[in-house]
Amino acid sequence: MLAWWIVSRALVPLAVRHLATHARMAAVAGLAIACGVATLLATQVLHGSALATYEETTSRLTGNAALLISNADAGVGEEIADDVRGVPGVGAVAPSVEGFVGLPDFPGERLYLYGVDLLADQEVRDYGAGATAVVEDPLVFLAEPDSVALTNELAEALHVRTGDAIRVLAPQGVVTLTVRALLETQRGPASVLGGRLAVVDLSVAQDVLRMNDRVSQVAVTLVPDADVASVENAVRARVGGRGTVEPPRARTATFTRLLANYRYGLLLTAATATVVALFFVVNVATIAVVERRRELGLLRAIGVRPRHLAGLVAGEIGVLAAVASLLGLPLGIALAWILGDTFSTTTAALYGETGGVAIRVSIGGVMTSLALGIVTPLLAIVGPLRRVLVVTPLDALRTMADEESRGVPRFAALAGLGAVLVIGATGAWLARTRLPVSAEGLGLLAMLGSMTGVAACLPFFVRHTMLTGDRLASRGRSLWLTLAFRGIGNDLGSVAVTASALLVSVAGTIAVVTWIASLAAGLDTAFDTVFGPIDLFVSSGGDPFAVDAVRMPETVAGEIARIEGVADVDEVRIDRLAFEGSSIAIVASDGAHYLDRRRRLFMVEGDARAVANALAAGTGVVVNQTFASRFHRRIGDVIELATPSGPWPFRIAGIHLELTPGDLGTVRLDRAVYRRAWRDTNVNVIEVTLQPRADRDAVSTRIRHGVGERHALVVLTVEALREEYRGMLGNLTRLVYPLLALTVTSALVGMASARVAALMAQRRTFGLLRAVGATRRQLALLQSLEGVVIATLAVVMAAAVGGGIGWMQVEVLLRGMLGMSVVYAYPRGAAVFASVAVVVVTGAIGWLLGRRTGGMAINAALQAP
User: Fold this and answer.
1) Is 168 helix (H, G, I), strand (E, B) or coil?
2) Bridge partners of 180?
3) How far apart are CA 190 and CA 146, in angstroms?
4) Cβ contact 256:726 at 8 Å
5) For residue 124, is it left (φ>0), alpha (ψ between -120 and 50) or beta?
6) Which residues contact 167 (CB under 8 A, 6 or more apart)?
7) Between helices 400-430 and 492-530, what is the axis angle to 10°?
């Protein structure tokens, strides 16, 4: 122990001196590590914050309920509340009706309308008004059917007081309510959703939201000492398939499973940043060995043991990784704050509204990111550490050429290891049905393993491509190209690693954009098929996918059908259901329209004509590939969906390409069947087909007047709706771009730093060139040409590598793990833009650095070491 303390005291100054000497490269490696830690932490913070927000929202809305009876957004029959009151062990039973409504007088604002039994609900929930009741005097509140209680926070934001009237846009149309109570926002339901809560009587909410004979959920409390499992089984038997019975925490588990699918894409982006960081770490560690071979050899000659030298190099990298990881933590938290709103919008579009995501940083997430930021670089320097262990005093006499010749098999061995990793990861995915591991786990392993393996192979191929270019340039007649390759060859090892880092960053960007482009291509394919003959789309309150859009009564469709120029209307109902512990969407429309080809489906499996007959007759449904994959269903299988009328069997007639770019399982059925089973006559979108030669703008204007004013109707053309779908896809993928930007930026900074180091090493060469007549502009052109050569090689290889990794991500992530049917599309535009931008930026960096170095005095340059 004493010997180690003495040796460490002697070696620490050497480590500090080395890091100071190579401060620029160490700073680049630190920046890359910080970016990797930041992207990983931001992903964990966003994911964990969404789960925590959802759990808190559920907990406060459900109060002290032990069980919830619900069916996602579709609701359950109100008679269920009476049915379960007689179950032994059941205490209070509190039905509620919930849903968002718009505020036409306050554009962009909306309320979560919460209808409860004001006299009984206080046994389940605490609203923070008065002592324990919802309002100070419930009888007065009930006496007026237009009464509403707002939170203090919302009332202040809307500048309303008790007694003021507010207008809300609901499926019933524009309704006027009177504020007769204010709620505190410190606890209970009023404390969630940013205070955007409006409490009304249960019957008022049923009327406003058009949920006749239905409620959103029934909260059940238990008597003291009741056995939860026994009561839950008894309640489930009494409900009998008319809804799902589960503890409140089960909702969080369902949301966790859904959100995990979206998390995979973010993890792949974070992995790209981490791989880029590892290249720079390996470069720093290699410099610590190669450039210090004389120092290490002399230390061995005076008796320093190999493990002490290995500790020296590992200590340098460990300190660098620790400092960089600590700097990456606040960067990751800041990134999570910046992306919080986008993440909230995305999860709402995919899995339902949970309110704004409140960013929360967990100790576990911080420690995990910190540990990976420190441990991963240490694992990446195993190769350089092995070289330290074999250093002998004779290494002090070895020349750089000797060292460089020994570097070739090192790259070859790394490439061999990478090839094994790629083959193993791919083989594991292909054998997934025979391995005792989940498809999700194997899929993530296959993608990360393939990306890491390809990255390990790149330095070998970059080095040999550079050597080939040098030989070809030497045979040609271009002096400046030959000089450029010779300049690159003087620092070939560092160039290979740095170019590989740039290559991985560009390839990772292309790979991520590939699955985004594939989703867009699938969207366009489905769009052209489904909406071919439709001219106009009508929704209420906002665009169909806007947060302020609300449902409409089907009578609106009847009024639109009578407008001059309208040939046909189709009412579409979109809803969410609970199914086998997850959430699915159902889309109900007129099945007869599939028979006369006014509506079409892009079939993945099954005969389109047979599917149309089944939908029109109401005897079958068509599901998307995500549903078939996630729930292991095939054509001909019968599924039972929970409805207020009881479990309803449906036979799967076909599997189709879904239009929505999410990963939600979808079931399409005839709207007449939906009306009977779910007791729901509301619609979300009305699709309008015009008469021949009808003026589309004139018909749109007629729709917006009359019935349009009562329901704040929005009329979209098919082109506008296509843009809305693209905007929805943009929301799903917007999070990855800032993460990718960090990765590419760190790689470009690393390239600039490497070029600075190369220029410093070539100052004597520059002096000689200036002495024989080379101008400052020519030297700047030479350095710019070197940068362009390196960047061009990187982006050309990145175009191929990125396309291959992108194809794997489409096959594994979208098709294999999520079960989505997408059309593979290579992002040519994004690849060309990224490649040209990287080449131009790298060339500009070389030009600026060359101009600066070329301005050095000739005598000073010739005296450079």
Assistant:
1) strand
2) none
3) 19
4) no
5) alpha
6) 103, 104, 105, 174, 175, 176, 177
7) 30
The residue type of 358 is A
Task: Work out whether the CA dihedral 460, 465, 468, 469 comes out positive or negative.
Answer: negative
Among candidates 90, 51, 18, which has minimal Cα distance to 285? Answer: 18
Residue among 454, 458, 433, 499 nearest 808 (CA): 454
Q: What is the largest CA-CA distance in the chain?
A: 102
What is the value of pTM for the model shown? 0.73
Give the 3-state secondary structure of 682-749. EECEEEEEECCCCCHHHHHHHHHCCHHHHCCEEEEEHHHHHHHHHHHHHHHHCCHHHHHHHHHHHHHH
CA atoms within 13 A on the CB side of 558: 5
Residue 296 near residue 309, CB atoms below 8 Å: yes
What gap in Å lies between CA 568 and CA 720, rounded to an integer?
A: 20
Q: Which amino acid is at 434?
A: R
> How many Å apart are CA 363 and CA 261, to the nearest integer?
23
**What are the beta bridge partners of residue 173?**
170
Q: Is 605 helix (H, G, I), strand (E, B) or coil?
A: strand
Give the pLDDT score at 621.
Answer: 94
pLDDT tens digits, 122-148? 666 555 444 333 455 666 677 778 888
Residue 147 three-state SS = strand
Q: For residues 695 and 480, give the distance between their C-alpha atoms in angstroms, rounded to a whole number.
A: 65
Contact present, 505 and 276 (Cβ < 8 Å) = yes
The string of pLDDT tens digits covering residues 331-348 is 888 888 877 777 776 666
What confidence tens digit (pLDDT) does each residue in 345-357 have? 666 666 666 556 7
Determine the Cα–Cα distance for residues 20 and 51; give it in Å rounded to an integer.
44
Q: Tokens at residue 248, please?
A: 């409140």
| Residue position matching structure tokens 């992530």 | 813
Residue 661 CA to residue 724 CA, distance in Å, equals 12
Beta-ladder partners of 603: 656
Judged against a pLDDT cut of 80, whether residue 676 lies above it is answered with: yes
Q: Which of 575, 591, 590 is nearest to 641 (CA)?
A: 575
Element (H, E) at 173: strand 173-183
* Class of residue 621 by CB neighbours under 10 A (exposed 0-12, middle 13-18, buried 19+): buried
Our measurement of the distance from residue 208's CA atom to the centroid of its chain's CA atoms, rounded to an integer in Å, reads 35
Decide if 151 contacts 143 (C-beta within 8 A).
no
Task: Work out the end-to-end distance of the chain between its first and last CA atoms, rounded to an integer number of angstroms.
Answer: 41
759: confidence class by pLDDT, cuts 50, 70, 90: low
In the chain, the percentage of residues whose pLDDT exceeds 90 is: 7
Which residues lie across from 76 on neighbouring strands? 215
> Best-predicted range by mean pLDDT among 30-44, 176-190, 206-220, 344-358?
206-220
Q: Which residues, other chains included, contact 364 with Cβ-Cβ below 8 Å and sequence gap of 6+?
A: none
Give me the amino acid identity at 406: R
CA distance 149 to 147: 7
- CB 232 within 8 Å of CB 245: yes
Beta bridge partners of 685: 572
E strand residue ranges, 191-318: 197-201, 214-215, 217-222, 244-246
759 sits in which H/E element: helix 736-761
64 token code pair: 């002290």
Return the closest-CA partner of residue 266 out of 53, 626, 516: 516
- Measured at the CA of 177, the angle between CA 172 and CA 182, to 5 degrees, comes to 135
The tokens for 58 are: 């559920």
